[in-house]
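Q: Could you fold this chain for me?
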Amino acid sequence: MTEANKRIGNRSSSLEAKGPPQLSDPRETGSQLRPGLWKTINERYPGSMIAKESFVKLAPLKQPLARSRITMISSCGVHLKRDKPLDVCHPFGDFNFRRVPSSARQDDLIIHQLKYPHDDADLDINVIFPIERLQEMVSEKHIGGLTENFFSFIGYNMDPAKFERTVARGIADAVADHEKADAALLVPA
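A: Sure. Below is the predicted structure, expressed as structure tokens.
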């Protein structure tokens, strides 16, 4: 038996002795994050991790989709090219959102986001912000209509309470008071 085979054999026998692997938090064991990252974030920024103990129930749709006005809310950071960019450099995140006209086309839009790779979305915005697919669903009569505006923000935020008071509240008010949506499509980045 070679030295390498002995080492492999020793590893497999030690694994068998321990029994089946224990499931752990994928955020701690995932290959994309360094070990202990979430603990470090919680130590440096207390309260930055979202922990909800009460939830708003989903509201049942009051009419068929074919007669409903739909809005879209996304954390992808897309906006019109002519709009002021979202702040992607602030260490606590940007607590603003952008209205995106539901009539916009891919050529009108840009993704202003550093926290995730968006090369594919730059080629086809619909992979992260399915605006043209929703437009098609309206023209094919699967959806009754779209609100005048959709909404986008940067999902990275280190102050969930402030995010809830500013971005979430602002979008919720706009959707309910101005856009009069029957339903919202939530699209995480």
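A (continued): Residues 3-44 form one domain.
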